[in-house]
Structure formats: C-alpha cells, structure tokens
Amino acid sequence: QVQVVESGGALVQAGGSLRLSCAASGSIITAMGWYRQAPGKQRELVATITDGGSTNYGDSVKGRFTISRATKNTVNLQMNSLQREDTAVYYCNVKYHPPFDREHEAWGQGTQVTVSS
Fold it and tell me: What pLDDT is stored for residue 98 in this prediction?
C-alpha cells in the first residue's frame, strides 16, 4: 500500500506563486501527478510526470505551472502567475506497480489552494 502526503496549499494573491509537494511511500512508483477540483466542477488534470521524466499538463496551466521530480518518490508543482480560477483542492495521484501485480493508483487527501484578487 502506498501512502501519499501532500503539502504546500495556502492562500495567495492573484499573480503570486506557490509550490506544492507530494511524497509517496513504498513500492515501485511509475508516475505521479496533480489533479484539482473546484467547487461544483469535475476533477481535472493539472500535471503529471512519469518515472522516465515525461510530463503532461492541463491546457489551463501550460506555461504557468511546472512539475518536477525532486526524488524518486517526491514531486513538486511550481505554480506561477496564479489566477482566481486556480482556486481548488489539489490532489496528488500516484501510480505504482507492485511486483507480479497490475498497476494501482493512490490519492492524497488534498490540499487547498485559494487565490484571492
């Protein structure tokens, strides 16, 4: 079982920056990423990164957010030029592949990011 711990959520002014971190324990991590969910909206992709370093971003954050792998089991999400529309609960997602088993995924509890005008 993989444990996922997020940190870094906060209240920030529009135009500001924030960095989220996600740490996962155990097993063989194949990919990590961030998704977000605003009130009344569906959860959406923010950014993902594979164990090989390939990244993928949601259209609304391209050019403003950067995902990076600090260690094999830790990723950071640098968020710049934050907008009110970025206000949401941000969830870390971890995909892992135990030996002799299929791929699984685990989610963190979520961390609140609020952007004020």
Answer: 86
